[in-house]
Structure formats: C-alpha cells, structure tokens
Amino acid sequence: MSPAVFGRGHLRLYLLALLDERPRHGYELMQALTEQFGGTYVPSAGTIYPRLAKLEDDGLVTKQSDGRKTVYAITDAGRVELESRRDELEGIEGQVTDSVRHLADEVRRSVDDAMKTLRADLAASARDAREGARSSGQQARRDTDDARVTSRMRLQDADSAVSRFRNELRSDLRIAAEGGTLSQETTELISAGLDDLLGRIRGSLGR
C-alpha cells in the first residue's frame, strides 16, 4: 500500500501556511500544492475542501463569497496555531517531498516491470514464429512476424502516451471545474484540437 503524501495533521498545517501568504480560493490552494511538488502530487477537491471546512469549524479560517468563488482567509487564531507549530512546519516540506518521490518511484517500477514483461512476451512470440517457419517463404514470413512484433510494441508505446495524455488532461480539467474556471473556449479548443490531431494521425496511417 502506498504511503500517504502528508502525515497526520500536516496538510491542515500546510493549508494554514498557504493562507498566511494571502487569501485564496480552493482551486488556488490545489494549484499551489500541485506546483509546489512539481505536478507529482495533485490534491483532489475531496481532499482539500473537507479540511478547509474543519479549519473553519475550528475558527482558524474564514470564508467569503467572491462571485462564484469562495475565498478562504486565515484568522488570528489560525496564525497563533501556525506560529506555535512553526518548527513542525519547516520539516513538513522535506517529508512530503520524500513521500512524493517514493510514490513516483513505485509507479516507475510498476511501469518498467510491465514493459519488461511485455517485451519478453513479444520476444518469445517472435522466436516461436521464426522457429515455426519452414517453407520456401520462411524469410518473408519472418520479416512479417518481426514487423508485427515491432508494430505491437509501437502500439503499446502509443497506448501509454494516450493514457498519460488523458490522465493529465482530466486532472487539469477536474481542478479547473472545481475552481469554476473551465470555460467554453477551453472545451471547444480541446474538441477542435483532437479532431485535427485525429485527422493527421489517420493520414499517417494511410486512412
């Protein structure tokens, strides 16, 4: 099981530190955390907003509507807690960075293991195909088999690229939607851009 990015109570303290810099709405807090850790940690609305609600219940932050957005600000009581735990705060960023690095390493190892297994299976399939070719057209079939193996490997790479693009775009869109900043222009740009890209890819495939 992967470790939590923040230790118990640490995200609460980190949110207070961000609000001590200036008032922010929920999307800005999620964006600040994402930027702080280079995109390796992307907090969800389900993680941030319940903690903001608890901070408000404890009298450590206030919230105020600003149009369609809710802006959170630290209170004097929040600053008192922040100052009383200043030493603890200084160690949080290093701990979080280590946790994020560990999570990234786990993902990287999983991907590497999957790719190694795939390549081994493809190599075995190619070897079996070569060993099974016995007719006068053996070389031609061998070339065809090799081309198919190469194409399958390229398909895996393409699938990985599409999945990575989809996951990263969905994360960005989800954060924008939670913050109320997802515009019609953005959705139209995505639709037009993907249609154009699909046409160009089909052209390269001879379709």
TrEMBL record:
Compositionally biased region (Basic and acidic residues): 140-154
Stretches assigned to the Transcription regulator PadR N-terminal domain: 15-83
Chain spans, region Disordered: 123-154
UniProt xrefs under InterPro entries: ArsR-like_HTH, Tscrpt_reg_PadR_N, WH-like_DNA-bd_sf, WH_DNA-bd_sf
SUPFAM superfamilies documented for this protein: Winged helix' DNA-binding domain (SSF46785)
Bilayer-spanning residue ranges: none
CDD domains attached to this UniProt entry: HTH_ARSR
Protein name, as recorded: PadR family transcriptional regulator
Organism: Amnibacterium flavum
Lineage: Bacteria, Bacillati, Actinomycetota, Actinomycetes, Micrococcales
